[in-house]
Amino acid sequence: MSAGLWHSGGLVCLIALITAPLDVLSQKTAKTNPLIEIDKRLHETEIRTESAVSELRNVNQEMATLGDQVSQLSDTISKQHSCNCDELTSLIESTQQQCKSRFKELAGQVKEQESEVEDRLNQMLETQLQVVESRINSSHNEMSAQITSINSMLESSIQELTFQVKTVRGKLEHYIGRVQKQLYAHERKLSSRIDELESELEKQVDQQSDRPDNASALNELTSRLDELFSRLDELSSRVDGLGNSSGPAAETALPRDCSDLPAHSPSGVYRLALGLPGIHSQPAVQAFCDLERDGGGWTVIQRRALIKPLLGFNRGWAEYKTGFGQPHGEFWWGLENMFQMTGPTDRQYELRVNLADSKGNRRHAIYGHFRVDNEANGYRLSIGNYTGDAGDSLMYHNDCMFSTPDKDQDMAKRIHCGRKFRTGWWYRACQSANLNGQHRYNRQTKYRRTTWNKWPGVNYYIPEVEMKIRPIKTTLSETTAR
Ligand SMILES: [Ca+2]
Known about the structure:
By secondary structure, this protein is an alpha+beta fold. 56% of the residues lie in helices and 13% in strands. Helix 1 (2-28) packs across helix 2. Residues 408, 410, 412, 415-416 line the site of calcium ion.
């Protein structure tokens, strides 16, 4: 610190030495030759500079000496210190050396042991692996052998079975072909026989009508029939006249269904006011009442029979809604009428289905519950409580909407059942019973015939059908009591 201060003081003296002659030069230039004066001054300045430099050298030497002294002092101090700590340091150093050599020794031992253990483990693992591998190999070989034997067995079995199936199929195809041929031959024979019979019958009828005695009998019969039909027409018109002249007030007096008609009334066509008394959404309608058979009280809602000319049932929604056909012949009463009659919940209806096959065998099915929903709900069928001897073929159609060839409301996604079977029915997907099928028969269309699948022995065709409804007994008695 003292050396620094000194050093800055020396510099100030040096600058003063250099600048002093310059000031003297600037004062005297005006009196003497300036060049000589300058040269002289330069020489003086040179001399002064040299002396200043020598002085600076001296100062440097002094500083070096001082530095030497300082280092000597510091050496002395450090020597004094080291004298005190030498023993300790040497002790520490020897201890460190010992520790290092011991550590090296230990590390070497640990390494040796590690490598030994590793070698042992590797050996053990290898032997174990070899054992496991050999076991796996042996079991794999065993399994392969088993699989091969099973495969060969299976192959031989499959070959055997394939051969058997081929043989059986060939035999079956042969039999089927024979049976088909026989069936076609029988069918052709039957068709020609039916044609022959029909023509024979027509000839006989013609011949008999040509004979005078038979002709008179026939004429008599025809005239009696005509008489009967004219009386029937007269009666119908009188009934119609009664209904029309008396207006809505009289319609309330009309029966709601055929069961409301007076006891011992004869079966026939009657006018009905459907729905709840006093609330009629449509005018009075005609219905055929079966008041004698099966306990009477029946409103007939459908009839099929081989009555010529045969009635076609391949009709659209509009006709199935309002009804079609003749009340004395084949007819469909109409879905709207069925809804109007069975809709009000104060009366529970039962349905009776009468069936007859072409040989005159008869069966029946009774459903203790029958209801037809409104048009917005597709005239959905609701039936239940089957009894009878025909088998329950209609329950399959429970809860199904009505479909026609021009309206698909069935549950078959890819089939339009009404179009397929060419008639209206409560198809599901598609049918277990269809009482609106075709009478016409050929090989291509036989599946479209009127059918009731549960009747044993009758697969396809039922020429005579009657569907009729009436309120069930309990409700009848309630109505009478009311
Ligand atoms: Ca469909």
